[in-house]
Amino acid sequence: MNRNPMSFSMDMFATKDKVAMITGANQGLGMYYAIALSKAGADIFIPHFTDDISEVKAAVEANGRRIGFCQGDLTDPIYRQQCVDECLAQFGRIDILVNNAGRNFAAPLIDFPDDQWKKVVDLQLEAVQYLSHIVAGVMAEQGGGKIINIASALSFSADLNATAYTVAKHGIVGLTRSYAAELGKYNITCNAIAPGFFATAMNDTIREANPSLFNKVSDRIPLCNDGVWGDPFDLMGAVVFLSSPASDYISGEIMVVDGGFKAIMI
């Protein structure tokens, strides 16, 4: 039976009293996801590798939500299980999983070191699969949930010196669609956000080291004004939407947030 359209509410775009696990959210773009979801009403649990947790802790608590942490290496299967166990111990459930943690290594294909290939793929793809697999079991028992993977502009193309990252991010698209196909019967959705080029400390080095590349990328972004790439703020609405009831009938999709970069072929 169709629901009454007058029952629609802006509360559909909220995550009130949900629990969101966001990997690597003590820094970078992940911190924006954590702040956005806490503003939308979720408690936050962060598996993290680096030490500093003070900024995101203060931000989430300022939004009136609880936050928990578990430090370790997501390529370690014991740690992955520990993260799930600790989140359940602290909050009792996992409603949202955002697979955000990542790393990169740049080198020409012929010279790409095997150990660096493994490090990138193990974190960017393998850890996403194994953690999602555990959490999917938890969500199935709960009666549903939302898994959100972080893809990339390089999920649809390739770039020089980024073979491992490109392969991993292509894999994220396949993983997202496979999970969507398998888990719908458990009321679990799986989608991905594919950020384009954003103004972060990591990308600032591109401007300094390779101004011509920076300008070439800027010229291809229709919404790039005065050479300014996307603001991480622009990703906050996307993660809230895919985590909220407003997206309940969306699964297996890749939401591209790139200022129009993908729309232009050069």
Helix and strand string, N-terminal first? EHEHEHEHEHEHHHE
- Using only C-alpha atoms, the radius of gyration works out to 18 Å
Query: At the third CATH level, what is the topology name?
Result: Rossmann fold
The major sheet is characterized as:
7 strands, parallel
Average pLDDT confidence is 92
Strands across the major sheet, in which order?
3-2-1-4-5-6-7
Class inferred from helices and paired strands: alpha/beta
CATH architecture: 3-Layer(aba) Sandwich
Low-pLDDT regions: none
Task: Report the portion of residues in β strands.
Answer: 5-15%
Shape: globular
For CATH, the homologous superfamily is named as NAD(P)-binding Rossmann-like Domain
User: How many β-strand stretches?
Assistant: 7
* SS field, number of helical segments: 8
Provide a descriptive summary of the structure in words:
By secondary structure, the chain is an alpha/beta fold. It has one domain: 3-Layer(aba) Sandwich (Rossmann fold), CATH 3.40.50.720. Helices cover 42% and strands 14% of the residues. It has 8 helices and 7 strands; from the N terminus they run E-H-E-H-E-H-E-H-E-H-E-H-H-H-E. A 7-stranded parallel sheet has the order 3-2-1-4-5-6-7, with helices on both faces. Helix 5 links the parallel strand 5 and strand 6. It is globular and about 50 Å long.
Q: Which helices and strands occur, and which strands form pairs?
A:
Layout: E1 19-22, H1 28-39, E2 43-48, H2 54-62, E3 67-71, H3 77-91, E4 96-99, H4 114-142, E5 145-150, H5 163-183, E6 188-195, H6 201-209, H7 211-219, H8 236-243, E7 254-257
Parallel strand pairs: 1-2, 1-4, 2-3, 4-5, 5-6, 6-7
Helix pairs in contact: 1-2, 1-8, 3-4, 4-5, 6-7
